[in-house]
Request: fold
Amino acid sequence: MRCDLHVHTTASGMCTIPLMDRICRECYNDPRALYERLKRRGMDLVTVTDHDSIDAAEQLRNHPDFFLSEEVTCHSPSGTELHMGVYGIDEAGHVQLRRRRDDLPALVSYLNERKLFFSINHVFSSLTGPRTDSDFSFFEEFFPGMEVLNGQMLETSNRAAAELARRWQKAPVAGSDAHTLYSLGRTFTEVPGTRTIPEFLAGLSAGRGLAHGVSGDYRKLTRAVMEIGWSMVCEKNWTALLAPLFLAVPAITLANTIREYAFEAKWSRQLLSTRPVPEIAALETA
Reply:
């Protein structure tokens, strides 16, 4: 069975850019449109991983091939921020995740007690800010899964994550991290031989997941930001007054791409030594 394990909807809330966080959403994907697009792209199962929210479930829970997940924004013992994917939760579990997200050891303990599978997302990305040596030590010891292929992250970052997951023997996870309909289902996880949601999640937890699809790049990021901006204007017509700012988007996304390369280079050198990261067979184009 196939499932895109990292997708967002309007329930992910407002963007995190200062000033824009008052007027622009993180994502404008309608949950029903997201479901239909994923099914058209060949996904056997559908989930959503909104930021600290399960509000999209209300519109999708009637589908027998849907299960609920969440991307939890939490903080490591060192104080840095990270994104954790938690899969196959329910409403009561969501409440518990919110209560514990600022106490990562307590959160991990709860997830293990409930036998919920979870992963560290985009581990070689600066998206959530800086990292420390102790962060990676914590990931190695306590996280059962690692996102090895993210449809918005650079190919070099994904390859480094895949190699780190192999060395640490982490269960692989892959997803598009789509904030627009365009990217949905182009990156996904397959668990062979499964026929139901419980079987899929059990296979995922057992490390039998296979990562398929494409990575991100500068052009893909720029397109996504422009599409989100256009959706903002369609939702709030007065924001068309900000249209001249769109001219700065290519420069902003270029700066972000350079920062991402630098972040990956620093930590892959430290964690993977100087040996080249080998080709990972699981990272194939769908």
